[in-house]
Amino acid sequence: GAGVSQSPSNKVTEKGKDVELRCDPISGHTALYWYRQRLGQGLEFLIYFQGNSAPDKSGLPSDRFSAERTGESVSTLTIQRTQQEDSAVYLCASSPRRSGRGDTQYFGPGTRLTVL
Amino acid sequence: SQQGEEDPQALSIQEGENATMNCSYKTSINNLQWYRQNSGRGLVHLILIRSNEREKHSGRLRVTLDTSKKSSSLLITASRAADTASYFCATDAGSARQLTFGSGTQLTVLP
Q1: Interface residue B42 vs chain A (CB under 8 A)
Q2: Hey, are the CB atoms on B44 and A42 less than 8 Å from each other?
Q3: Which member of B40, B97, B104 has the closest CB to residue A48?
Q4: E strand or H helix at B84, and its extent?
């Protein structure tokens, strides 16, 4: 079946603009995660959804970052007033159940965000 | 902060040789997973080892886990040029919902 998809694949924006990144998880996956990966570094956790609620927002770096999810489907990550430090690849992953149960996470291809 | 730290940061070997990557972590875990990433994009899950397991095999992959040392190793045997990628360990710890990733090892397999 279809994997996790993300759009756009690349986004170039000017400093101060808002951007919206989209993630379509695997159908039936209740858990959804957003990560950020700066160049040459590991993944930095941003936010986790169980269904459409977000029990863990601890990784969001500032109040410019927000995310929402519709039911158990698409999620959007919004970055307001983008800064150059926001440039990174934003990765979305989904898993069938809540994490902490040894679930594998299935990753999308990521959105490469460049803030000029 | 990163839970897992891989070493080496970069590894270059000849095709046919074995590649070993190590991961250390700081807190107690439920399981440890290894992922592979090509060209800085999506990650692919390779193998999961639970905290009560010491060794696991999958094809050319062998993973060990030493919870007393809080470390894991990933061995790729008979490497191929197509194995060139970044490899990350990720820990699933306590009640945390998310995986915590290390900074990765960049493996280059020369033909």
Answers
A1: yes
A2: no
A3: B97
A4: none
| Better-predicted residue by pLDDT, A29 or B93 | A29
- Give B44's strand partners: B36
User: Between B47 and A42, where is the model more confident?
Assistant: B47
Q: Which residues in chain B have Cβ-Cβ distances shorter than 8 Å to A107?
A: 35, 42-44
Compare CB distances from A33 to B45, B98, B103 and report the shortest one's residue: B98
B58 touching chain A per CB within 8 A: no
Smallest Cα distance from B101 to chain A, Å: 6
pLDDT at B1: 38
Mean pLDDT of chain B: 89
Q: Mean per-residue pLDDT for A3-11?
A: 96
Cβ atoms A22, A78 nearer than 8 A: no
